[in-house]
Design a protein that fits this description.
The protein has 211 residues and is an alpha/beta fold. The chain is 45% helix and 11% strand. It has 11 helices and 5 strands; from the N terminus they run βααααααβααβααβαβ. It has helices spanning 21-29, 35-44, 47-52, 58-66, 75-83, 91-100, 114-127, 133-136, 143-146, 153-163, 177-184, and strands at 6-9, 105-110, 139-142, 170-174, 189-192. α11 (177-184) links the parallel β4 and β5 (189-192). α1 (21-29) packs antiparallel against α5 (75-83).
Length: 211
């Protein structure tokens, strides 16, 4: 049996807590009333998808949002509301992953965008002893820089190639079953993190994955 040497983590709902409802609540507090129209039009135009794959820039995203709201909306306000869904990174998770680094090389693979990246990277700098979240991991892959997002198997093929990984040596941890299933097709060991389960529970006392 091949030994796991590398672990790739998803970010949202695995390392950082996320609640998308907080973004809609933040928008509503500004007096913006056409929330359903905003969601419908942005989804119909694939605006979120395009932002996460780098097909549009943050300024183009903000313009798209401004085009469907019913009051004036500044760049800073849009960013603040967009980032409201990003909650905390519990220190016990980072502490545990620091222990994992004694046994494995750790990586990050996230469907994300530059606006969100700036926000959680600043959070990481403010709360942990690292100059960036990128310096905590051996390498980080972000969808908006790769032009593709999970669960497209192409993103996992790219990661396997760029990381120089051998099939069976790398595990992928994600909260979405469709993502770990896609990762498995490219030679990664799939590790699904169900709701309410902490990453610490995926390992035994000797830091071996329970798979």
């Amino acid at each position: 049996m091949t030994q796991i040497k590398h672990i790739i983590f998803d970010l949202g709902k695995v390392i950082i807590n996320v609640d998308t409802d907080e973004t809609m609540k933040s928008i509503a507090r500004r007096g913006i009333s056409n929330l359903e129209k905003i969601q419908t039009e942005l989804l119909a135009s694939d605006t979120y998808f395009k932002l996460e794959t780098g097909a549009i820039r943050p300024d183009e995203f903000r313009s798209a949002v401004r085009n469907v709201v019913d009051i004036p909306y500044t760049d800073d306000e849009i960013d603040a509301d967009w980032n409201a869904m990003l909650l905390d990174i519990p220190p016990e998770r980072v502490k545990f992953m620091t222990r994992l680094k004694s046994k494995y090389k750790l990586y990050l693979l996230s469907n994300t965008n530059h606006i969100h990246w700036l926000s959680y990277d600043r959070y990481f700098q403010d709360h942990f002893d690292y100059p960036s979240i990128n310096t905590f991991f051996t390498h980080c892959w972000y969808s908006y820089l790769m032009g593709v997002r999970k669960p497209d198997t192409e993103i996992f093929r790219m990661v396997m190639e760029e990381g120089g990984f051998q099939a069976g040596e790398v595990a992928f941890v994600d909260d979405l079953k469709e993502n770990v299933d896609a990762a498995a097709t490219q030679g990664m060991t799939p590790v699904h993190l169900p709701p309410g389960v902490e990453i610490m529970e995926l390992f035994d006392q000797d830091l071996r994955l329970k798979i």
